[in-house]
Amino acid sequence: MPELERPISTANRVTNFINLIRNRKGAFIKRMEANINSAIRAIQKLTETNRTPNRPQYEETLRYREGHVRWPAALDSHLEQQSATTPRDVENISHISTPPSVTSRAIRKQRLQQQHKPELISKQRGAGQGQRRNVLKVIERMKKNREQQRQLHAKLKEKELHIMMRQGTPNWEFLHMINQYRSRIVFRPLQESDPVEDHQITVCIRKRPLNKSEFTRQEVDVISVPSKDEIIVHQPKVEVDLKKFLENKRFKFDYVFYETCCTELVYKYTAKPLVQTIFEGGMATCFAYGQTRSGKTHTMGGDFQGKTQDCKKGFYAMAAEDVFKFLKSRKYKKINLAVFASFFEIYDNDIFDLLANKAKVHFLEDGCHQVNIVGLTEKVVDSVDEVIELIDRGNTARASGNTSANRNSSRSHAVFQVVLRTTGTDRIHGTFSLIDLAGNERAVDMNPPNRQAKMEGAAINTSLLALKECIRALERKDAHIPFRGSKITLVLRDSFIGEKCKTCMIGTISPGMASCEDSLNTLRYVDRVKEHRATYKQRTTS
């Protein structure tokens, strides 16, 4: 009958399940009986041979593997071979009817096991816990590093998606490619604990952060600083079929300062090591080169708050402060040196004294090929505050102009000099020149493109070209170096070929995509100075 088929099938399944339980129970009982019998035979064998275990044998280490116990060798060899025997089997031995002598001996063994078992287990656990702690520390460290990498990638992804989702964002494809490239870089930027290296000519690069106007234009940052001596330019390119791609160009220098580095840190690795040179009777020069609004005047003169410049945070004031510290030190206190300061600019290949209402002065070269500036004002200074006052006066008088890149662009090369003279003899002991070069300009950047602006730009580019030609000639080891091609090259001549001289060149670059070509030109320009340093070393060591 169909209505009885379901109860019958259910009863059959229950019957099969009960039979399965019975079979498993029977197998389990047989296995337990076999274990008990093997233990009884082992104890009887031990009784027949009158083997009494010694105490030292019970002090062997108990080894636990996968939940089973391997007892000490003193119990007997048969128990060592029975890997299936468990502690519960041994505990059940006391309930088996055996002769009194066998029972008492088994109880004695069990008591000895219980006495030594906690001590041995605690020792093993102590050793194991120490290893576990070390492994856990390594695992935690790896987890922390992975978490940091995930957070970094998540931030980059979030920023990338945010830019891509904004309608009208230009060049988001290049931004996506740059972020993908950066996600594979392990960044190791310069740290304050890194050592300061000693070079005759130090060559470095400083990258500034994106400014307000670049943020407004939604510029893409195309400069990466993976390490303290390396910089990468992600140059955007477009193929003939309009497919976009990047050319990633790497440069290496002595130091590369990323955008969040403060001026104090830049000074520590660049100009500060040069101060000792002038106290040892030498000449030190530090000059900044780069396109307009790349951070040259900010580095040399100090931070800007609107149109007001804080001169205390620039290289001029920092160098003066270190000069006075050296002057008061025990080593140089006995030399009797006086500190003088001068400030002049080179504008349209003419020299103007910034401390004397921009009076025009002249270059003269003596028989020893030493360049002297006739009529230049030198002020005696006794403190850093007096130096800062002179810097303020000079910056106010300095020539500036309006370009499309900078409303207050420096249109001249500014030279601030700290001179040490021997008291009484007026002899020059050492000179420290800090030079803020004018920004290299293109004619299309002039705003408005009037005649005066074009002449200023031509004069600036001519003087910078003369400096480049001198560097090329030095690199080629030419017999004649064209230092007389410009006034600025005459000022810098002793910095490159002087016997007791040390020089530092700081290339400043803008990170925006619109300034990519100018940044590459600056890097190539500075790289030539680095090549000259290699030939200079070969020439001085041979």
TrEMBL record:
Molecular function terms from GO: ATP binding; microtubule binding; microtubule motor activity
Extract the Pfam families matched here. Answer: Kinesin
Its main subcellular localisation, reduced to a broad class, is: cytoplasm
The source's superkingdom equals: Eukaryota
The record's GO CC annotations read: kinetochore microtubule; spindle pole
Q: Give the start-end ranges of region Disordered.
A: 80-101
Q: Which GO terms describe its biological process?
A: chromosome segregation; microtubule depolymerization; microtubule-based movement
**So where does this one cross the membrane?**
none
Outline the extent of the Kinesin motor domain. Answer: 200-532
The answer to whether keyword RNA-binding applies is no
Under InterPro entries, the record lists:
Kinesin-like_fam, Kinesin_motor_CS, Kinesin_motor_dom, Kinesin_motor_dom_sf, P-loop_NTPase
Q: Where is this chain's protein located in or outside the cell?
A: Cytoplasm, Cytoskeleton, Spindle pole
Keywords (A to Z) from UniProt: ATP-binding, Chromosome partition, Cytoplasm, Cytoskeleton, Microtubule, Motor protein, Nucleotide-binding
Q: Does the keyword Cytoplasm apply?
A: yes
Q: Where does ATP bind?
A: G290, Q291, T292, R293, S294, G295, K296, T297
Q: Which PANTHER family match?
A: KINESIN-LIKE PROTEIN, KINESIN-RELATED PROTEIN 6
Family per record: Belongs to the TRAFAC class myosin-kinesin ATPase superfamily. Kinesin family. KIN-13 subfamily.
Name of the protein in its database record: Kinesin-like protein
Q: Which organism is it from?
A: Cryptotermes secundus
